[in-house]
Amino acid sequence: MDSQFLKKVGLKATLPRIKILEILESGGTARHMSAEDVYKALLEHGEDVGLATVYRVLTQFEQAGILTRHHFEGGQSVFEMDEGRHHDHILCTKCGRVDEFFDPTIEERQKAIADKFGYSMTDHSLYIYGICKDCRKKEKA
Amino acid sequence: MDSQFLKKVGLKATLPRIKILEILESGGTARHMSAEDVYKALLEHGEDVGLATVYRVLTQFEQAGILTRHHFEGGQSVFEMDEGRHHDHILCTKCGRVDEFFDPTIEERQKAIADKFGYSMTDHSLYIYGICKDCRKKEKA
DNA sequence: TAAACAAATGAGAATCTTTTGCATTGTTGT
DNA sequence: ACAACAATGCAAAAGATTCTCATTTGTTTA
Ligand SMILES: [Mn+2]
Ligand SMILES: [Mn+2]
Ligand SMILES: [Zn+2]
Ligand SMILES: [Zn+2]
Question: Which ligand has an atom closest to residue A134 CA?
């Protein structure tokens, strides 16, 4: 149960946290959600959770290491549940579609660059922007 | 003169635009500046330009293709004059130091990934975060 | 070079996203 | 069930950026 999971990561099993976890786990909505997205999803499920709590809980989940925060272009932060494996993103600037990829060569080069400049790398973010196949098809029409 | 340059790119040569251009060109301050940084630099030079104008002008310069806007972590946008060659950034999360690099292998892989997923790539952003050598030295002390 | 007109500016209000303060409510171990 | 303390909701605050609008400035024209 989710409440067990929350306790395991050191968080009290409160209703808001359980509900937010459910929203994020159910791939029902997109895998990549903003705080506002999560908040709206909660309202649709009839849950009465404050937006401030959504922000607080997402930040706690991030600190607990169970989700990752991304900074896609366009203002707000986007969150996604972690499933262990790191990946980067390629997104369509027309329709918002998001695809995920992992490229060992790029990962390796990044580390080499950090070394070369004398940094101990702690993190990195790579976003590729473009127009997806579907959107190009529509444009031609 | 800067006013000629501004006209060349299709912008009226106004005092605020000329002054902002000077600030950005004089590597005096860091190469990577936020709107607020530019605004403060103007004030220090005794220029009386509104912050709203700084934002407007930076956006216009971006659209005119003479500078690039970056989204480093930590909220505000950062701008830098273009000098033709594209590059990515590695930055220290302790002291804010920024280094620039260009890696043909990474660039190439990115294009390959976009192709593989059926996107026509329009842009990409890569930031490597870490602790620079100087900051690691201080930490040990 | 002065009038004429459109474009640009400055100041502050407005917006948008995220954070914070605080009184109230909920969770947990006993 | 209860005390102890953490979490929540709401509204206010904060930080970054954009917008509104009256006023000023740059450029063109006569
Ligand atoms: Mn993802
Ligand atoms: Mn740069
Ligand atoms: Zn698309
Ligand atoms: Zn440093």
Answer: 3
- Rounded to whole angstroms, how far apart are CA atoms B106 and A96? 24
In this predicted structure, what is the pLDDT of residue A111?
98
User: How far does residue A90's CA lie from ligand 2's centre (Å)?
Assistant: 22
DSSP-H helix ranges across chain B: 2-8, 15-25, 35-44, 51-63, 104-116, 133-140
Residue A118 CA: which ligand is closest?
Answer: 4
- pLDDT tens-place string over residues B35-74: 999 999 999 999 999 999 999 999 999 999 999 999 998 8
| Closest residue to B130, CB basis, from A103, A119, A133 | A119
Q: State which residues have CB under 5 angstroms from ligand 4, the bound ion.
A: B 92, 94-95, 97, 132, 135
Count of domains for chain B: 2
Tell me the CATH number at B110. 3.30.1490.190
Is residue B60 within 8 A of residue B11, CB to CB? The reply is yes
DSSP per residue, A50-100: -HHHHHHHHHHHHHTTSEEEE--SSSS-EEEE--S---EEEEETTT--EEE
* Closest CA in chain B for residue A71: B73
End of a domain among B30, B51, B81? B81
Among A99, A109, A132, the residue with its CB nearest the CB of B103 is A109
DSSP annotation of B117:
T
Regarding whether A59 and A24 lie in a shared domain, the answer is yes
Measured between alpha carbons, how far is B63 from B108 in angstroms, rounded to an integer?
A: 26
Same domain, A12 and A76: yes
